[in-house]
Amino acid sequence: MGDTLEFNEIYHESKGSWNDGRLRFSKQNVVYKSSKTGKVDNIPAAELSVATWRRVCLGHGIKLATSSGHVYKYDGFRDTDYERISEFFKANYKVELTEKDMCVKGWNWGTAKFSGPLLSFDVNDSSVFEIPLASVSQCATGKNEVTLEFHQNDDSEVSLMEVRFYVPPGPADEGADPVEAFAQNVRSKADVIQATGDAVCVFKELQCLTPRGRYDILIYPAFLHLHGKTFDYKIPYTTVLRLFLLPSKDQRQMFFVISLDPPIKQGQTRYHFLILHFSKEEELKLTLNMSEEEVEKRYEGKLSKNMSGSLYEMVSRVMKALVNRKITVPGNFQGNTPGAQCITCSYKAQSGLLYPLERGFIYVHKPPVHLRFEEISSVNFARGTTTTRSFDFEVETKQGNQFTFSSIEREEYGKLFDFVNAKKLHIKNRGFKEAKNNEYSDSDDDQHDAYLERMKAEGKIREEGDGSNDSDEETGEYDSNASESDSGSGGDGSGDEGKKKPAKKAKVVKEKRERKPRKGKKQKDTNAPKRPMSSYMLWLNSSRERIKSENPGISITEISKKAGEMWKQIGKEDKEEWDGKAEEAKKTYEKAMKEYRESGGGSSTPAKKESKKEDKKRKSGGGEKEKEQGGNDSFKSREFISSEESSSDGERKKAKKAKKAKGTPQSRDKVLHCHHGNNRMD
């Protein structure tokens, strides 16, 4: 058998609500840690006196009693755990684990026994039920009757409000009243707060953020009394879970936070945190209402009768000594603002401060939130919904609750990411910061889109295709400002006939302008090297079969979607491997393309482009010369400029004679004339 025994999902009853946690038996002690609150019960092995194994509603349970009078009950064990625990107790604690059955007769009369902090109702020496007296809030007496009222727990679905006991009258010769004796036993152990005696010290008019207002704080040995103009609160020290002392962002104010379980109530409002607000400049001289010997004996040097210093230091020092809990302060985290150990953000539309601590996060102040690292499932850095100058920090707990802290300045991103990464919290979008070179960006590059990648690749190919066809042909635009041609008389038939051939060529040019066969031209070049694939496409080709095998019946579109999600989860080292493969493929493609172009392949070689540019320049230059020679009356449109066959008078005459010999009315009707920019059919 090992040195320890550990059990998960063990339940501990707290004011009518079952809270699960982890129980560990070791040679030195018994430790139970609640999963909900993180509160730890530590029972030294030397103090264990009685151990009882019982059948309860959640399987089997253990009841442990200590020599100091405390009783601890833990439920949720299996029947097979009895032998292991019994042997462990015998070997290490020298305590016998005894089995005891509960009474299930259902009788409502029996014997009430007070055993330490428990009231047990027994029938025939078998326990029917037990009442923790610490859960009793009020005890009232009547004629032969005692009424017990209980503290309520907001987490329990059903609450027990009160129990009434009928106490029969005793013999006449007995002077003691059995009802009062019963009530006195209950009150001695019950959690009924009564302000008896003087307060240890008093702090006047302290500013409280939750609950809001100014309160006088009276410090008693067993509880804390908040006295305000409207409300009074009495807080037992046993309900204090943690203490926090947090500096404000401006370094001139301090927050003292007291975590409470169960919370204090104001109507239907529950306050799980008590937040006191101080200024660092406030000073106080404090004198305790106790003698020096009593202070030394009770607090063992933690306090002295006369103290002086900052107000927040006095309050925190007194609370630490009376509650006997450590004060949590911010750790090594440093925000973007020099000296600031917090981050300005918003939670539920309320602005506040988020403090990254050594073991969790705490948000101050409305509403206060404390998240321990051990209860956090994952965190996420999300883009701000209103502006790109900020981002959101999302925290998801293991219970499924999500807390979103929004409007965080983007300058805080690097510091917060490094802090979360150092605490080894699971980050959903871990590759996001690394891809941005430690700088938060508002682009969409953090989310991989397979469809977008494919569109980008096709766009690059299309751009190259357009570049290869930029100078394939001359444009055939028709100049509406063209005047009559200077190649003949302005209105005779010879001039009209001389324009027949240029008109036909202009028609052909217009057909070229449609550019329909571009894609066909690009696709015909099958000898050109194929473009390289991106790192994602290389990874997708190698992983496609695996995705199909892991997801039978998946469609093509779902494969792309699934691959995009998987690509996000790939680590930085794996992505660098595929990036290297993509870079090698790109270099190979560039080398092959260079050799292909040098060998004369492709439709967009430099030599062809250069020759086409020269032809275009020469033709445009010839048109300008003709325009200068002919003046305004001799201006020719591009159709006439591009037709060099009819540029001389001799050629026009030959064309005229040939046309008269062959001409027909139908052919003449198709001749295109240009008169002062207007088109008409002759």
The major beta sheet can be summarized as:
8 strands, mixed
User: What Rg, in angstroms, do the CA atoms define?
Assistant: 45 Å
DSSP strand count: 33
Mean pLDDT: 76
Give the strand content. 25-35%
Oligomerization category of the chains in this entry: single chain
Give the % helix. 25-40%
Shape category: elongated
Count of helical segments? 17
Which residue ranges are poorly predicted, with pLDDT under 50 across at least 5 consecutive positions?
Answer: 432-447, 468-512, 604-609, 622-647, 663-682
Strand order of the largest sheet: 18-17-16-15-21-20-19-24
Q: Pairing-aware structural class of the strands and helices?
A: alpha+beta
Cα(first) to Cα(last) distance is 116 Å
Task: Describe this protein with a few key phrases.
alpha+beta, 8-stranded mixed sheet
Summarize this entry quickly.
The chain is α+β, with helices and mostly antiparallel strands.
Write the layout of secondary structure elements.
Layout: E1 4-14, E2 17-26, E3 29-34, E4 40-44, E5 48-56, E6 59-66, E7 71-77, H1 81-93, E8 97-99, E9 111-115, E10 118-123, E11 126-132, E12 136-142, E13 145-150, E14 162-166, H2 178-189, E15 201-210, E16 213-219, E17 223-227, E18 232-236, E19 240-247, E20 253-266, E21 269-279, E22 283-287, H3 292-299, E23 306-310, H4 311-323, E24 327-328, E25 343-347, E26 350-356, E27 360-364, E28 369-372, E29 376-383, E30 390-397, E31 402-409, H5 413-422, H6 431-435, H7 450-468, H8 493-497, H9 500-512, H10 518-524, H11 535-550, H12 556-569, H13 572-598, H14 606-630, H15 638-642, H16 649-662, H17 665-669, E32 672-675, E33 678-681
Parallel strand pairs: 5-8, 19-24
Antiparallel strand pairs: 1-2, 2-3, 3-4, 5-6, 6-7, 9-10, 10-11, 12-13, 13-14, 15-16, 15-21, 16-17, 17-18, 19-20, 20-21, 22-23, 25-26, 26-27, 27-28, 29-30, 30-31, 32-33
Helix pairs in contact: 11-12, 11-13
